Automatic annotation (TrEMBL):
Gene3D superfamilies: Acetylglutamate kinase-like. Coiled coil: none annotated. InterPro entries: AceGlu_kinase-like_sf, Asp/Glu/Uridylate_kinase, Phage_holin_4_2, Uridylate_kinase_arch/spir. It comes from Candidatus Uhrbacteria bacterium GW2011_GWE2_46_68. Keywords: Kinase, Membrane, Transferase, Transmembrane, Transmembrane helix. One of its GO terms (molecular function) is UMP kinase activity. This is Aspartate/glutamate/uridylate kinase. It comes from the Bacteria.
Length: 336
């Protein structure tokens, strides 16, 4: 959380310098004064915002948003009265600066949504500790640069072993199969949350619609929700709720292929696809334990929401970094 505060401090100071160039009546004579003002503003927000949020819970979202603009403008105006080189001449320039500062914050607060295949975490031979260590190192590195993550994890071989064992003993319904898979994802979710202790939200979220849209934690973990919906579906729900335009799907394959390359040597890799093409390839029905690159129900939701999905091999960490940085990567990009 300290890293997030420092990142926001620097970003706000830079924003103050930029605002001073375009807002009449808003003057900052040096970057040092901008840093000082941003630091004071950050401290005030850290201590005052939680109390104000509790006091204003009954207020509508629109009114609360306007209230926050006015509050920030007032704080900028107060800060200008105690720092000689930070000058705000009137409340209107302060209000305009507060709005621009909010836009800067919104643009730098985008959450990266990851849907991690359970087979990466728990392959048939057991928990892949080396993969988890690599994943932890990668995400910690990206978090230090100011990024935030929402991670959803599948059930992997834990799910399939429980489903197989139960099926050998009794007759299972689709709901039975789904619930066994859902609880396997929750166990894997707790494993991920544990290895990110200290920076991850302490709760593993089951319902994606209850995930906080703003959080002091740079990483949160979610798992399966209810029968009929895979963790891919949960990931798309998270992307919609958190304002992310893309979901990164970590699998154990390099691409989506025209057929299963393990069974068909002539299968071709598909680097780019539309949602219509992808849906025609995998069909439209979800089955418990289904092993598709991205499940059909989640695909329909992503297509309707205009959300892009990148499918890539999660074990190729260098390739994952390139994908995060919007560089050329090995994998399949699915979009409208």
């Amino acid at each position: 959380m300290m890293t997030t505060f420092l990142f926001r401090w620097i970003i706000n100071a830079i924003a103050f310098m930029a605002i001073a160039m375009i807002v009449p009546g808003f003057e900052v004579t040096s970057f040092g004064y901008a840093l000082l003002a941003a630091f004071i503003l950050g401290l005030v927000n850290a201590f005052v915002r939680p109390l104000l949020f509790i006091l204003t819970l009954p207020v509508t979202i629109i009114t609360l948003g306007l209230f926050v603009f006015v509050l920030n403008a007032f704080m900028l105006w107060i800060v200008s009265s105690v720092i000689d080189g930070f000058d705000v001449r009137g409340f209107v320039p302060a209000l305009l600066a507060a709005m621009l500062l909010w836009l800067v914050g919104w643009g730098t607060n985008v959450v990266i949504v990851l849907s991690i295949g359970g087979s990466l975490v728990v392959p048939p031979e057991g928990i892949d500790v080396l993969f988890l260590k690599s994943l932890r190192t990668l995400l910690l590195h990206e978090i230090k640069k100011g990024k935030k993550f929402a991670v959803v994890v599948g059930g992997g071989s834990v799910c399939r072993k429980y489903q197989q064992a139960a099926g050998e003993i009794g007759t299972l319904t689709r709901d039975d199969l789904d619930w066994l898979g859902i609880h396997a994802t929750r166990l894997n979710g707790h494993l991920l949350r544990t290895i990110f202790r200290g920076i991850a939200h302490p709760r593993v979220f089951k319902n994606p619609h209850q995930v906080p849209q703003k959080s002091a934690y740079p990483l949160l973990v979610a798992a399966g929700w209810k029968p009929g919906w895979s963790t891919d579906y949960v990931a798309v729900c998270l992307a919609k709720r958190l304002g992310a335009s893309q979901v990164f799907n970590f699998s154990n394959i390099d691409y989506v292929y025209t057929a299963d390359p393990r069974k068909d040597p002539s299968a071709k890799a598909l680097p780019e696809m539309t949602w219509k093409e992808y849906q025609a390839l995998i069909g439209g029905e979800w089955k418990p334990g289904m092993n598709a690159p991205f499940d059909p129900i989640a695909s329909r939701l992503a297509a309707r929401a205009g959300i892009e999905v990148a499918i890539l091999n999660g074990k190729n960490i260098a390739n994952v970094k390139a994908c995060f940085q919007r560089k050329k990567f090995v994998g399949t990009r699915i979009a409208l």
